[in-house]
Amino acid sequence: MKEITRINHVGLRVRDLDISRKFYEQLGFEFVAGPVGPEPAAIVEHPSGININFILNASDDAPQDNILMRKDMKYPGYTHIALEITDADAVSKKIEALGITITERVEINGAKFFFIRDPDDNVIELHQPASR
Fold it and tell me: Which parts of the chain span the membrane according to its record (predicted)?
């Protein structure tokens, strides 16, 4: 459908708004609103225009690990979000200085990317495309 122009937002179920908000603010996201709506949700947005809706209805007794990223069982569903960056080396140093663990580093055909996890074990890829 040519009418689709971009991703409007990503919905991300989280356990604790304050903890998630603090983590994503370290990545440059800014709190916009919330909790609002029937689910409820809170909204953060990065100056680049990336918008994440924190869905605030996670069950207290849900497993702590991300079920989609379990090693043995491969469940269908969204596995991660990839945020494009301009300098993987500089960003990885900033991430490490924040005390955030980098779980994997990859370089393929000039593209550099690495992975981190948020407080709810959701995977975030920070991706520097190959030079064009």
Answer: none
